[in-house]
Amino acid sequence: MELRLTCEHCDCALPNDSDRAMICTYDCTFCKTCVEEVLFNVCPNCGGGFEKRPTRPAGQLEKYPPRQEKVFKPIDPDTFAPLLKKYRDVDPRKRI
Given pLDDT bands bounded at 50, 70 and 90, which one contains residue 77? Predict the structure, then answer.
């Protein structure tokens, strides 16, 4: 799992021990607020849903450090709208 330390949309800090970090199946990382209030549990990159990101044990951070390069791709509402319309009311496990 790639450990990203900021929200891809709003750029807020999501350190390893954050309980606000959410990920999709491809490790796209967003804060809980953006997932709930902007994305409505639809990943703008793959269309999947989000789950709480697990915390990497502190003893493993040196061997498996977080990603240092920031992924910052704020959501364009117009570009995201068709994907959101397609999946907002579909359970993530049933999305095609």
Answer: very high
